[in-house]
Amino acid sequence: MNSPQNQPSIFVPDKNKVVIPFMRDVFTIPSNSRHKPKLIGSVCKECEEYFFPKTGSKTTCDNPVCPRSTSEVLLSGRGKLLSATITRSSADGNLEHVSAVILLDEGIKINSHLIGWEGYRDMLVPGSPVELVLQDLGENEWRETQVGYAFRLLTGRRKPVFPPTEEEKRAAEAVRAKSEKRSKRQQARRKKEAPEKAASEKKRTTASAKAKAPAVKKKAATTRKTAAKRKTSAAKAANTTNRSATAKKAAAGKAARAKAPKKTAAKKTTAKNTTQKKTASKTPRKRR
Known about the structure:
By secondary structure, the chain is α+β, with helices and mostly antiparallel strands. It is 41% helix and 22% strand. The protein has one helix at 166-282, and strands at residues 19-21, 39-44, 49-51, 71-75, 78-88, 96-104, 109-115, 129-139, 145-153. The strands form two sheets. Strands 5-6-7-9-8 form a five-stranded mixed barrel. A three-stranded antiparallel beta sheet has the order 3-2-4, with no helix packed on it.
């Protein structure tokens, strides 16, 4: 697997070192850490077309309809990833490199190495932001520090996620096997203890049922007594209601009988008066 130790480190400016570029007139070398490196390119002021690497101050624009000459310009050094290819070293199969096609903010497509991608494999997709960095390539025979340019992913505050190494895989496998053995022992113990637990549970259930039996009987007796009392109260209430109804009927009959003679006497008097009137009307008057 790839390791940061196998990759060239990022160049840090140091006044005590003699620094030379791996390729001249391609990028700038900052004198301190506050400044960032820039790519050196060319621009045509007439058609605003950018070129990398620079074409020279007297070179004409590549645009056939633009005969103007170009001028040197410093490019931003920022862009986005168009494509990325992971390759393995032939000498060491575990060493991986990434070659990328990058589109700069000025609209120029360039090929470059990509560094700092370990732990961010999911970002090796088109559209991921990148920036220019310088790599420390070591010292030459004249004790001069050589530097080259590359690009790295802009990951922000995301934390890298590295794939597990062979040692980590073996450790994880040992932990998994140990947990499986433990689970098997627990299952065997549970199977062995299952009959004993069932018997103890049965005894406990029987004892609790026996302990609850008197209480259940007492509750049933109380319930029956309560039901009998309610039934007696209902019967008494019904008898009282029947008696009051009978008394009311008797009083009503007595009142009716008391009113009946008066009505008969009134009828007889009325009939007598009517008979007398009829008799008087039939008797002829005497002539004078």
